[in-house]
């Protein structure tokens, strides 16, 4: 989430305001007990907005307190009043800004305030959140359950690749308050009568620009046509960039939307120490190996552009005794989830990933990001290095610029508005690998 120091200094960095909830939610809601807001004191600070300042329900604040959400990020401060009031919204914000907390807290606040008078049918969500990838759906649902720990809310997911029967059963057997879904699986369930969207009076379209890039907009249109008319529906759209296509969709789907913009992408860069090693293609693996073996390298994500390169690199590291795992689009969903959890909990310290898979990685404590190959798009560079430097911790980004990829640097520097330090690798990073015979 947003990295500006004026908005993110927290007294307990393990669960900061700017970060997504990291607690593992239970399947059932916790009992609220005798908790009250006085048990979660947050002192007012000049220039900062507290979650206390929004007069949220005590049970909702209890979940927020468990996550130690204290001061709002810029998008939370700007957007929450309008979202809670039920206004349509377009948010220029990407992963790492705190946008998930904006729409989740807003949705939960409205759903609790506007309880239905009649018994609802199973599989009929009151709020719908659409996201482009399975990993993002899983993360948003996990965040929702964590924030709603003490609320009588049923949150369900629908995403492709795995869990078809389980997801279907979870929707058919009880009423649903919030449904988080990828477009394809949601349409499938809708056509089969598993899900009914005519009561989804709140709708969130997350990462709208990626929806466009991935060709999901026709599916999203079909989904929206199944929800209440836009004048009877609160619609929120979030996008890292507000392109002409995104703006056109917003004009079709929203009513007088509030526009909130943050500079999260470039701000995220400011919290990470960046270095570019100029080297030859033949030196890259040697330098990478020695970086991983250095004492300062605790947990690292290595990015490549191509799936085949990621697999080749992962296999080579494993042959050299590195405890690593692979995350690409070719890895089955159940394995992707288990590998992410192994990395999250420190059972594996090195992950090799591509950009598509890497967008599902929201893990604190990543010390290093290595761009083994520089990305084709500057936006992907910023997204990659944003995997480190989270939760107020220091982060290091190391990029390799060889004969083939160095010309991408100019576009990256223009995008982030600064010149990257380019240096040859230190002598210790070029020492040969001693392999056991």
From TrEMBL:
UniProt domain Helicase C-terminal: residue ranges: 271-431
Keyword field: ATP-binding, Cytoplasm, Helicase, Hydrolase, Nucleotide-binding
GO molecular function: helicase activity
InterPro entries: DEAD/DEAH_box_helicase_dom (IPR011545), DEAD/DEAH_RhlB (IPR044742), DEAD_box_RNA_helicase (IPR050079), Helicase_ATP-bd (IPR014001), Helicase_C-like (IPR001650), P-loop_NTPase (IPR027417), RNA-helicase_DEAD-box_CS (IPR000629), RNA_helicase_ATP-dep_RhlB (IPR023554)
Sequence segments annotated as region (Disordered): 1-42
Family classification: Belongs to the DEAD box helicase family.
Name of the protein: DEAD/DEAH box helicase
Classification of source organism: Bacteria, Pseudomonadati, Thermodesulfobacteriota, Desulfobulbia, Desulfobulbales
């Amino acid at each position: 989430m947003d990295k500006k120091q004026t908005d993110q200094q927290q007294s307990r960095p393990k669960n900061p305001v700017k970060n997504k909830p990291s607690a593992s939610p239970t399947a059932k809601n916790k009992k609220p007990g005798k908790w009250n807001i006085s048990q979660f004191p947050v002192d007012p600070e000049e220039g900062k907005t507290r979650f206390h300042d929004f007069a949220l329900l005590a049970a909702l604040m209890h979940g927020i307190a468990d996550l130690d959400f204290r001061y709002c990020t810029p998008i939370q401060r700007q957007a929450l009043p309008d979202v809670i009031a039920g206004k349509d919204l377009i948010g220029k914000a990407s992963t790492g800004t705190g946008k998930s907390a904006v729409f989740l807290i807003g949705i939960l606040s409205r759903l609790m305030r506007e309880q239905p008078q009649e018994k609802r049918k199973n599989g009929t969500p009151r709020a719908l959140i659409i996201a482009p990838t399975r990993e993002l759906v899983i993360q948003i649902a996990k965040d929702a359950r964590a924030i709603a720990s003490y609320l009588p809310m049923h949150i369900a997911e629908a995403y492709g690749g795995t869990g078809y029967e389980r997801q279907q059963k979870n929707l058919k057997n009880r009423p649903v308050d919030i449904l988080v879904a990828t477009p394809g699986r949601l349409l499938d369930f809708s056509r089969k009568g598993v899900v009914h969207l005519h009561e989804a009076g709140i709708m969130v379209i997350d990462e709208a620009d990626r929806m466009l890039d991935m060709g999901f907009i026709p599916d999203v249109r079909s989904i929206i046509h199944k929800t209440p008319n836009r004048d009877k529906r609160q619609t929120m759209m979030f996008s890292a960039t507000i392109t002409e296509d995104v703006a056109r969709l917003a004009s079709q789907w929203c009513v007088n939307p509030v526009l909130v913009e943050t500079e999260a992408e470039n701000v995220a860069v400011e919290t990470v120490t960046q270095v570019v090693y100029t080297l030859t293609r033949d030196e890259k693996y040697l330098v990478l190996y020695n970086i991983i073996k250095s004492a300062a390298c605790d947990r690292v994500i290595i990015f490549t552009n191509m799936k085949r390169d990621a697999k080749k690199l992962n296999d080579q590291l494993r042959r050299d005794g590195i405890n690593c795992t692979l995350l690409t689009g070719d890895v089955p969903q159940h394995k992707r989830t288990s590998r992410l959890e192994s990395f999250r909990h420190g059972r594996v310290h090195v992950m090799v990933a591509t950009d598509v898979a890497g967008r599902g990685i929201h893990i604190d404590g990543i010390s290093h990001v290595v761009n083994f190959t520089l990305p084709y798009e500057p936006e992907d560079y910023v997204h990659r290095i944003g995997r480190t430097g989270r939760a107020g911790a220091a982060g290091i980004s190391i990029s390799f610029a060889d004969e083939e990829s160095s010309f991408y640097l100019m576009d990256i520097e223009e995008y982030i508005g600064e010149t990257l330090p380019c240096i040859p690798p230190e002598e210790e990073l070029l020492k040969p690998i001693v392999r056991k015979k």
